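Give me the fold.
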Amino acid sequence: MTALFALATSLLWGLADFGGGLLTRRIPALTVVVVSQVLAVLVLGAIVLSTGAWSEAGPQLWYAVGAGVVGPAAMLAFYKALALGPMGVVSPLGSLGVVVPVSVGLLLGDRPGLLQFAGIGVAVFGVILAGGPELRGAPVQRQAVLLTLVAAFGFGSVMALIAEASTTLTGLFLALFVQRVTNVLVGGGALYASVKRGGRALPEGGPGIIRAALPALAFVGLADVAANGTYALAAQQGPVALAAVLASLYPVVTAFAAFAFLKERLRSIQAVGALLALGGTVLLVAA
Protein backbone atom coordinates (compact mmCIF):
# COMPACT_ATOMS: atom_id res chain seq x y z
CA MET A 1 0.00 0.00 0.00
CA THR A 2 2.92 2.36 0.61
CA ALA A 3 3.96 2.14 -3.04
CA LEU A 4 0.36 2.57 -4.26
CA PHE A 5 -0.30 5.68 -2.17
CA ALA A 6 3.10 7.17 -3.05
CA LEU A 7 2.61 6.64 -6.79
CA ALA A 8 -0.85 8.21 -6.52
CA THR A 9 0.88 11.17 -4.88
CA SER A 10 3.27 11.55 -7.80
CA LEU A 11 0.37 11.47 -10.28
CA LEU A 12 -1.63 14.10 -8.37
CA TRP A 13 1.34 16.42 -7.79
CA GLY A 14 2.42 16.09 -11.41
CA LEU A 15 -0.99 17.12 -12.71
CA ALA A 16 -1.32 19.90 -10.12
CA ASP A 17 2.08 21.32 -11.15
CA PHE A 18 1.10 21.17 -14.81
CA GLY A 19 -2.16 23.01 -14.13
CA GLY A 20 -0.52 25.55 -11.85
CA GLY A 21 2.20 26.25 -14.39
CA LEU A 22 -0.38 26.91 -17.08
CA LEU A 23 -2.45 29.19 -14.85
CA THR A 24 0.53 31.35 -13.84
CA ARG A 25 1.07 32.24 -17.49
CA ARG A 26 -2.24 34.15 -17.37
CA ILE A 27 -2.78 34.92 -13.65
CA PRO A 28 -0.28 36.28 -11.08
CA ALA A 29 1.38 33.40 -9.25
CA LEU A 30 0.37 34.57 -5.75
CA THR A 31 -3.24 34.85 -6.85
CA VAL A 32 -3.14 31.31 -8.20
CA VAL A 33 -1.78 30.07 -4.86
CA VAL A 34 -4.31 31.95 -2.72
CA VAL A 35 -7.44 31.26 -4.79
CA SER A 36 -6.65 27.57 -5.30
CA GLN A 37 -6.03 27.15 -1.56
CA VAL A 38 -9.23 29.02 -0.60
CA LEU A 39 -11.22 26.60 -2.76
CA ALA A 40 -9.41 23.68 -1.12
CA VAL A 41 -10.21 25.08 2.36
CA LEU A 42 -13.93 25.16 1.54
CA VAL A 43 -13.96 21.50 0.52
CA LEU A 44 -11.78 20.36 3.43
CA GLY A 45 -13.86 22.36 5.90
CA ALA A 46 -16.98 20.50 4.80
CA ILE A 47 -15.14 17.16 5.19
CA VAL A 48 -13.86 18.05 8.67
CA LEU A 49 -17.35 19.06 9.83
CA SER A 50 -19.02 15.96 8.40
CA THR A 51 -16.46 13.52 9.88
CA GLY A 52 -16.14 15.13 13.31
CA ALA A 53 -12.37 15.42 12.81
CA TRP A 54 -12.22 18.38 15.22
CA SER A 55 -12.19 15.88 18.09
CA GLU A 56 -8.67 14.81 17.11
CA ALA A 57 -7.10 18.23 17.59
CA GLY A 58 -3.80 18.04 19.45
CA PRO A 59 -0.20 19.31 19.60
CA GLN A 60 0.70 17.39 16.42
CA LEU A 61 -1.26 20.00 14.45
CA TRP A 62 1.70 22.35 14.86
CA TYR A 63 3.39 20.22 12.19
CA ALA A 64 0.48 21.09 9.89
CA VAL A 65 0.88 24.78 10.74
CA GLY A 66 4.58 24.53 9.86
CA ALA A 67 3.73 22.88 6.55
CA GLY A 68 1.18 25.63 5.91
CA VAL A 69 3.78 28.35 6.45
CA VAL A 70 6.43 26.77 4.22
CA GLY A 71 4.04 25.58 1.49
CA PRO A 72 2.95 28.93 -0.03
CA ALA A 73 6.55 30.14 -0.33
CA ALA A 74 7.54 26.91 -2.05
CA MET A 75 4.52 26.97 -4.38
CA LEU A 76 5.09 30.61 -5.29
CA ALA A 77 8.75 30.00 -6.13
CA PHE A 78 7.85 26.92 -8.13
CA TYR A 79 5.01 28.52 -10.10
CA LYS A 80 7.23 31.48 -10.96
CA ALA A 81 9.91 29.06 -12.15
CA LEU A 82 7.37 27.16 -14.25
CA ALA A 83 6.25 30.43 -15.84
CA LEU A 84 9.87 31.32 -16.71
CA GLY A 85 11.10 28.03 -18.14
CA PRO A 86 9.84 24.90 -19.93
CA MET A 87 7.88 22.68 -17.53
CA GLY A 88 9.83 19.63 -18.62
CA VAL A 89 13.06 21.30 -17.45
CA VAL A 90 11.96 23.09 -14.28
CA SER A 91 9.75 20.42 -12.74
CA PRO A 92 12.36 17.64 -12.35
CA LEU A 93 14.70 19.91 -10.40
CA GLY A 94 11.92 20.33 -7.87
CA SER A 95 12.26 16.65 -7.05
CA LEU A 96 15.57 17.35 -5.30
CA GLY A 97 13.42 18.18 -2.27
CA VAL A 98 13.17 14.42 -1.73
CA VAL A 99 16.49 14.72 0.12
CA VAL A 100 14.66 16.30 3.09
CA PRO A 101 12.11 13.54 3.90
CA VAL A 102 14.58 10.78 3.02
CA SER A 103 17.08 12.28 5.49
CA VAL A 104 14.36 12.55 8.14
CA GLY A 105 13.41 8.93 7.54
CA LEU A 106 17.00 7.79 7.98
CA LEU A 107 17.33 9.80 11.19
CA LEU A 108 14.14 8.20 12.50
CA GLY A 109 15.46 4.72 11.89
CA ASP A 110 14.64 3.80 8.29
CA ARG A 111 17.23 1.32 7.00
CA PRO A 112 16.60 0.60 3.31
CA GLY A 113 18.18 -2.55 1.92
CA LEU A 114 20.84 -2.58 -0.81
CA LEU A 115 18.26 -3.02 -3.57
CA GLN A 116 16.18 -0.13 -2.21
CA PHE A 117 19.24 2.14 -2.03
CA ALA A 118 19.94 1.27 -5.67
CA GLY A 119 16.32 2.03 -6.56
CA ILE A 120 16.46 5.39 -4.75
CA GLY A 121 19.62 6.39 -6.59
CA VAL A 122 18.35 5.31 -10.01
CA ALA A 123 14.94 6.93 -9.54
CA VAL A 124 16.27 10.30 -8.34
CA PHE A 125 18.92 10.41 -11.09
CA GLY A 126 16.27 9.50 -13.66
CA VAL A 127 13.90 12.21 -12.48
CA ILE A 128 16.64 14.83 -12.81
CA LEU A 129 17.52 13.63 -16.31
CA ALA A 130 13.83 13.60 -17.24
CA GLY A 131 14.07 17.39 -17.26
CA GLY A 132 16.88 17.34 -19.80
CA PRO A 133 18.97 19.51 -17.45
CA GLU A 134 19.75 22.88 -19.01
CA LEU A 135 21.68 24.75 -16.34
CA ARG A 136 23.45 27.12 -18.72
CA GLY A 137 21.98 29.88 -20.80
CA ALA A 138 20.15 33.17 -20.36
CA PRO A 139 19.67 34.86 -16.96
CA VAL A 140 16.01 33.88 -17.02
CA GLN A 141 17.02 30.21 -17.05
CA ARG A 142 19.36 30.70 -14.08
CA GLN A 143 16.61 32.51 -12.19
CA ALA A 144 14.22 29.64 -12.89
CA VAL A 145 16.77 27.13 -11.56
CA LEU A 146 17.34 29.16 -8.37
CA LEU A 147 13.61 29.49 -7.73
CA THR A 148 13.14 25.77 -8.31
CA LEU A 149 15.84 24.82 -5.80
CA VAL A 150 14.21 27.06 -3.18
CA ALA A 151 10.88 25.41 -3.95
CA ALA A 152 12.44 21.94 -3.76
CA PHE A 153 13.66 22.48 -0.19
CA GLY A 154 10.22 23.84 0.73
CA PHE A 155 8.38 20.89 -0.83
CA GLY A 156 10.65 18.42 0.93
CA SER A 157 10.04 20.16 4.25
CA VAL A 158 6.27 20.05 3.71
CA MET A 159 6.48 16.31 2.99
CA ALA A 160 8.39 15.72 6.22
CA LEU A 161 6.06 17.90 8.31
CA ILE A 162 2.72 16.64 7.02
CA ALA A 163 3.80 13.03 7.57
CA GLU A 164 4.11 13.83 11.30
CA ALA A 165 0.86 15.80 11.59
CA SER A 166 -1.57 12.89 12.05
CA THR A 167 -1.84 9.19 12.77
CA THR A 168 -5.48 8.52 11.73
CA LEU A 169 -7.55 9.20 8.61
CA THR A 170 -9.87 11.73 10.26
CA GLY A 171 -6.86 13.31 11.94
CA LEU A 172 -5.32 13.64 8.50
CA PHE A 173 -8.38 15.53 7.24
CA LEU A 174 -8.02 17.96 10.14
CA ALA A 175 -4.26 18.33 9.58
CA LEU A 176 -4.78 19.07 5.89
CA PHE A 177 -7.48 21.62 6.75
CA VAL A 178 -5.20 23.40 9.24
CA GLN A 179 -2.38 23.33 6.69
CA ARG A 180 -4.57 24.92 4.00
CA VAL A 181 -5.99 27.58 6.32
CA THR A 182 -2.42 28.52 7.20
CA ASN A 183 -1.59 28.53 3.47
CA VAL A 184 -4.38 31.03 2.84
CA LEU A 185 -3.35 33.29 5.73
CA VAL A 186 0.33 33.32 4.74
CA GLY A 187 -0.34 33.54 1.01
CA GLY A 188 -3.02 36.19 1.50
CA GLY A 189 -0.64 38.28 3.59
CA ALA A 190 2.03 37.98 0.92
CA LEU A 191 -0.48 38.95 -1.78
CA TYR A 192 -1.57 42.01 0.21
CA ALA A 193 2.05 43.07 0.73
CA SER A 194 2.72 42.58 -2.98
CA VAL A 195 -0.22 44.78 -3.95
CA LYS A 196 0.90 47.47 -1.49
CA ARG A 197 4.29 47.46 -3.25
CA GLY A 198 2.61 47.94 -6.63
CA GLY A 199 2.20 44.33 -7.66
CA ARG A 200 -0.88 42.97 -9.40
CA ALA A 201 -3.50 40.71 -7.82
CA LEU A 202 -5.65 40.49 -10.94
CA PRO A 203 -4.62 39.39 -14.44
CA GLU A 204 -4.56 41.92 -17.25
CA GLY A 205 -7.96 40.73 -18.43
CA GLY A 206 -9.57 41.55 -15.07
CA PRO A 207 -11.54 39.38 -12.62
CA GLY A 208 -13.37 37.65 -15.48
CA ILE A 209 -10.18 35.67 -16.20
CA ILE A 210 -10.18 34.32 -12.65
CA ARG A 211 -13.88 33.45 -12.78
CA ALA A 212 -13.36 31.53 -15.99
CA ALA A 213 -10.39 29.72 -14.46
CA LEU A 214 -12.17 28.68 -11.23
CA PRO A 215 -12.58 25.02 -12.26
CA ALA A 216 -8.87 24.79 -13.09
CA LEU A 217 -7.93 26.60 -9.87
CA ALA A 218 -10.11 24.21 -7.88
CA PHE A 219 -8.46 21.24 -9.56
CA VAL A 220 -4.97 22.52 -8.72
CA GLY A 221 -5.87 23.16 -5.07
CA LEU A 222 -7.69 19.87 -4.54
CA ALA A 223 -5.12 17.77 -6.39
CA ASP A 224 -2.40 19.27 -4.19
CA VAL A 225 -4.44 18.53 -1.04
CA ALA A 226 -5.11 14.96 -2.17
CA ALA A 227 -1.41 14.48 -2.91
CA ASN A 228 -0.46 15.61 0.59
CA GLY A 229 -3.01 13.18 1.97
CA THR A 230 -1.89 10.16 -0.03
CA TYR A 231 1.74 10.94 0.83
CA ALA A 232 0.95 11.06 4.55
CA LEU A 233 -0.79 7.69 4.27
CA ALA A 234 2.16 6.25 2.36
CA ALA A 235 4.66 7.49 4.95
CA GLN A 236 2.56 6.08 7.81
CA GLN A 237 2.31 2.60 6.30
CA GLY A 238 5.89 2.02 5.19
CA PRO A 239 9.47 3.37 5.16
CA VAL A 240 9.54 7.15 4.72
CA ALA A 241 12.45 6.89 2.26
CA LEU A 242 10.45 4.58 -0.01
CA ALA A 243 7.34 6.76 0.16
CA ALA A 244 9.30 9.97 -0.45
CA VAL A 245 11.18 8.70 -3.51
CA LEU A 246 8.12 7.20 -5.19
CA ALA A 247 6.08 10.34 -4.45
CA SER A 248 8.84 12.45 -6.01
CA LEU A 249 8.32 10.91 -9.45
CA TYR A 250 5.75 13.64 -10.14
CA PRO A 251 8.06 15.62 -12.48
CA VAL A 252 7.87 12.72 -14.95
CA VAL A 253 4.07 13.16 -14.95
CA THR A 254 4.44 16.93 -15.51
CA ALA A 255 6.92 16.38 -18.35
CA PHE A 256 4.63 13.92 -20.12
CA ALA A 257 1.61 16.21 -19.63
CA ALA A 258 3.58 19.07 -21.20
CA PHE A 259 4.48 16.75 -24.07
CA ALA A 260 0.88 15.61 -24.55
CA PHE A 261 -0.93 18.94 -24.20
CA LEU A 262 1.65 21.61 -25.00
CA LYS A 263 3.62 19.61 -27.57
CA GLU A 264 6.86 20.28 -25.68
CA ARG A 265 9.30 17.90 -27.30
CA LEU A 266 10.98 15.33 -25.07
CA ARG A 267 14.72 15.32 -25.72
CA SER A 268 16.65 12.06 -25.74
CA ILE A 269 18.02 12.73 -22.27
CA GLN A 270 14.48 13.24 -20.97
CA ALA A 271 13.31 9.93 -22.42
CA VAL A 272 16.31 8.15 -20.85
CA GLY A 273 15.59 9.86 -17.54
CA ALA A 274 11.94 8.79 -17.60
CA LEU A 275 12.98 5.18 -18.25
CA LEU A 276 15.52 5.31 -15.40
CA ALA A 277 12.90 6.77 -13.06
CA LEU A 278 10.52 3.95 -13.93
CA GLY A 279 13.34 1.41 -13.53
CA GLY A 280 14.13 2.80 -10.08
CA THR A 281 10.45 2.53 -9.21
CA VAL A 282 10.46 -1.16 -10.15
CA LEU A 283 13.49 -1.76 -7.92
CA LEU A 284 11.85 0.02 -4.99
CA VAL A 285 8.55 -1.79 -5.34
CA ALA A 286 10.22 -5.18 -5.83
CA ALA A 287 12.58 -4.81 -2.85
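The chain has 13 helices and no strands.
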